[in-house]
Amino acid sequence: MASIRRVGFLGLGIMGTPMALNLAKKGFEVTVWNRSRARADALASQGLSVAATPAELASKVEAFCTCVADPAALREVALGATGLLHGASSGQVYVDFSTVSVPLIEELGAAFGAKGVDVADAPVTGSKSGAEKGTLVIMTGCSEATLARATPIFQALGEKVVHCGALGAGTQVKLAGNALIAAMLQAFSEGLLLTKKAGVDPRKFIEVVQASGFRSPYFDFKGQALLKRDFATHFSIDLMHKDLSLVLDNAASHRVPMPTASSLRSTYELARAAGKGAMDITAVITAFEALTGTVIE
Fold it and tell me: Closest Cα partner for 238 from 193, 273, 287, 262?
């Protein structure tokens, strides 16, 4: 089967825009669509084509990719009245980079599979900087044949691809991974806040953590952001709250207790109630700073 050259990309947010641009930089002919047309039009000057609807986009490409905020948005883009399904045809590849539910991924697999479209779920980690640099880690669920066809797309966007299993397996791993990220950040931030409140330089806490068995490059990145009060959004509080809700729904379906994830979702609800939903997940601790009268700096 001929290699894929014409690729569509739908969803031009913090992650999607640099991902679409990286595909173009790697030699793909890229057509884009976004619910807010202005974001798509902004890429036209960089050589990308713009489609009027998802269905129109699907009719013009050999593969199409989605990266949207939540299950409702993905359902509309893929299955809505002008959705991808209406323009799709046998032999195409559909890659979803969103973080949604496993049942929705399976539903998409059945709907597009009935039209002869190969489907892969491929959520990513690496945040905004990874999307910009093309260094994302991609966890995908699909058949071996679909993986082979989608690999050039993955290689244009990431530095590591992990084939997790059949369709839906990538999403399963991503949901568990995001619960871990939230737990790591919350415990780290609470440690910094306690250290500061007790009158000790929080930099000493970071120094010890990063010299210990529980060190992580994530703590350098987020620790410096907290000390600089830099809450520019790489991954928003609203989106992590959505993902934690998906994690808990997923856990309930498998009868797996996840009390830590449940507690974490409550902390994100506190931050959202304080009007911080659009801020980076680093800003969750600011709600606790307000309660304690202490600022990490």
Answer: 273
Q: In the listed set 145, 165, 185, which residue is the last one of a domain according to the structure?
A: 165
Task: Tell me the residue type at 248.
Answer: L
DSSP tag of 46: T
Q: At a CB cut-off of 8 Å and minimum separation 6, what does 109 contact?
A: 119, 167, 168
Q: Name the residue with tokens 């990513």.
A: 124
In a domain? residue 254: yes
> What confidence tens digit (pLDDT) does each residue in 12-48 have?
999 999 999 999 999 999 999 999 999 999 999 899 9
Active-site entry in 160, 174, 196, 242: 174
Q: Which two tokens stand for residue 255?
A: 């009868």
Structure tokens at 247: 């994690």
- Tell whether 160 and 17 lie within a shared domain: yes
CB-CB contact of 96 with 105 (8 Å): yes
CB hemisphere CA count around 29 (13 angstroms): 8
Say whether 197 is catalytic.
no
Assess contact for 243 and 99: CB atoms under 8 A.
Answer: yes
As for how many domains the chain has, the answer is 2
Asked whether the beta carbons of 113 and 93 are under 8 A apart, the reply is no
User: Are 154 and 222 members of one domain?
Assistant: no
Residue at which a domain ends, from 165, 182, 217: 165
Q: How far is CA 255 from the centre of its chain?
A: 25
Q: What confidence score (pLDDT) does residue 2 get? A: 62
* Rounded CA separation 194/288 (Å): 10
242-288 pLDDT, tens digit per residue, is: 999 999 999 999 999 999 999 999 999 999 999 999 999 999 999 99
